[in-house]
Every structure is written in structure tokens, then in C-alpha cells.
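Researcher: I'm preparing a figure for a lab meeting and need a structural model of a single chain. I don't have an experimental structure, so a prediction will have to do for now. The sequence is pasted below. Please return the structure as C-alpha cells so I can convert it later.
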Amino acid sequence: MKANSKRKVLGDAVDLLMGDMEEVIMPRGVQMISVKSIQPFHDHPFHLYEGERLEDMIASVKEHGVLNPVIVQKLDTGYEMLSGHNRWNAAKLAGIKEIPAIVKTGLSEEEAYVYVIETNLMQRSFSDLAISEKAAVLKARYEKEACQGKRNDILEEIARMEGKEVPVTYGHGDQRLNTRDMIGKEYELSGSSVGRLLKLNDLIKPFKDMVDRGALYTKVALQLAFLPENEQTMVYEIMKEKKTKITIEMVMKLRSHSGVLTEAMVKRYLSKEPIKKKCYKVPARIVEKYFEGMDPNQVDSIVEQALEAWFSKEAANV
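Model: Understood. Here is the structure written out cell by cell.
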């Protein structure tokens, strides 16, 4: 199964209602926990539902409750969401006090992130993700390659919960491919595309949001990603203040001074207007008098010769 093949959405109550209600029976290990006791995952890379999709989920939760349990991990105080941010958000907005949850304990940071990433990919296609979301998925996949065995265990658990086929992953048997090419093969991307998306993870969140909205070209964003976080923040704040659209020429200037950028320098580079080339037009009467019936190449040649002759004469008179 390709990672970007279309998966049926099982993560929200609306879709669950379309299936056999017997499939909704809570499995063992599910407990009801307070909505207020949960906090979002500290590095959640996905956008929450908005607009009509969110309203539909709220309406369904109000009528039927949260049918599919979320997955959380226990904290010293309360819980952290791993899978089910949209169900949890809809429940809060619907005024629901408690939701069903599967509580995990003792997870490493890597294991927790696998739950966050893989449950989202169980619910929607990789190709449907926003650019920054794709970048986050590939980063997790890239960094967790060393933990492939544990990742496979978690994938099998998630697949069983969702009633899905266990996704195929590439292990050590594919040694002829380097890591980026191997991940690219899984997501139908070239190794270079994987590399570019991985670099976008170094952007600050406001720039990631701009990329997702189409307000910042990816090629510009890639260059901004080479700036340290404090310089990116400074550039973003000045862009917002001046309502400036940054160009590739501007960002390359900024990069050439990375490490020593000051606010004054950023303002200067972002406020510089590109030099506009002047256009000169030959009056129609001259065209009719000297160039009537000639093709553009002939006209260019005659004008060039005439100008060379004129400037040579002027230079001789100096």
C-alpha cells in the first residue's frame, strides 16, 4: 500500500456513523477522561479542521458524542493528545465534558510522534496535506528510520484499531537506496524533493503558514530556512510591518549576511526597489521614414551600427 494512497477517514464521528454501529463498540482499555484535562501535542504539525468540515463534526458530536476514542499520553498533570485533535476540538466547542480515550504511558518522544504522524496518515492522503504538513511527516519518517522496529509495532497497533491493512515499510533489505531516496520511494517523491521538504521544517511557524496559504513561494521559503530562528523572526516582523513581499533577490542578500543581520540591514534590503529598466521607443515617423518593410533583425542591426558610428564620432571630438 503506498503511503499516499487514499484512505477512508475513520477519525471523526461523521464517518463512523456511516458504518456498522457494531464496529463502534469501545474496545477494552478505553476510559472516559475530562476534555479540560487534555492539552494539544506540544509539536503538533497539522492544521485543525475549519469552516464547514468543523461545523459538521460539531453537529455530529452534539448529537451522538465522540464515538471513536482519542489516543493520549499521561502527563504529571493531565494528558497530552496524540491522536484525535479534531474530535477533541469539536467536543470542546460542542460543550462535551468527557470523551473516550486510550491512555498511553512511558512513551519516548519518538514513539509519541509516530502516533501523531501515522494516525493522521491513516485518515487522509499524503498528497492532501499542506506543504508544511508534508514536511513534518517526512521529517518524522526520516528521523525515526533508526527506530524502524518500534515504528512497525506502533503501525500494526494503529492499523488494528482502525481495521486497516498494515502499511508496507522499507527496511534494511533496500540498502541500495539512501535514506532520502528510500523515503521518497515510499511517498512517490524524488530524493531531492524529500530534501527540499525536509529543509522547510527549519522555518518559523509564521513562514510555514505563509507557504501553506500560497503567500510565500517555496523557493524563497527554502532560502529563508537557512537563516537562524532569531533572524527569521526579525525578517518576518519587518515584512509584516512594511507589508513587503519578499523576493528571491532580497532573501539571497539576507542570507549573504546571515549571522550579522541587524534590523537596519533587514529594513534596507526589504525596502530596496529593483532597478527598472528604461524602455525607449522609436517614433512612428522615423520607423516609416527609415525602416518601412524591414524585419526586426534588420532594424536592430542598423540602429546598432548607427549608434556605434555616432558614439565613435563623439569620442573623437572629445
